[in-house]
Amino acid sequence: MDSYNEENIKMYFFENRLKTYEGWPFDEDCKCTPENMAKAGFIHTPSENSPDIAMCFFCLKELEGWEPEDDPEKEHKSHSPSCHFIALKKKVEELTVEEFYRLQKERHKFINNKSCNEAVTKFEEAAKLRRADIIKTAMGEE
Ligand SMILES: [Zn+2]
């Protein structure tokens, strides 16, 4: 996969993150407005039952249950202290190619980690079911 294609780097840009906040429940007179959420690296990833899920495009940390007084930047730092994006001192547009390359490498670690964890969970669930089946069969054959 070409890790520098447009789709892959799209969410590094504030405007693209901001566009995801359709239907976001907090708009005025609060800290977690779409602008502040997008500034803090979050994209809006709602599901049917949870309209207020937001995920950092970089470290993939998902947070829900937002309150109007929650400060997206502070929440991000406290829930995902190892996120390189929220710790950035410069704007993405101001990074050198080398800095961007290093950042992208760190991002891929988060992506790989998450997909590995998901695969392990899936496997463990399947193993549990299979084990229950085996026990059931064994008990039936006694
Ligand atoms: Zn993050």
Automatic annotation (TrEMBL):
Keyword set includes Iron: no
InterPro entries per record: Baculoviral_IAP (IPR051190), BIR_rpt (IPR001370)
UniProt-recorded Gene Ontology molecular function terms: metal ion binding
Main location: nucleus
One term under GO cellular component: chromosome, centromeric region
Cell location: Chromosome, Centromere; Cytoplasm, Cytoskeleton, Spindle; Nucleus
SMART domains reported for this sequence: BIR
GO process annotations (BP): cell division; chromosome segregation
Record protein name field: Baculoviral IAP repeat containing 5a
Upper lineage: Eukaryota, Metazoa, Chordata, Craniata, Vertebrata
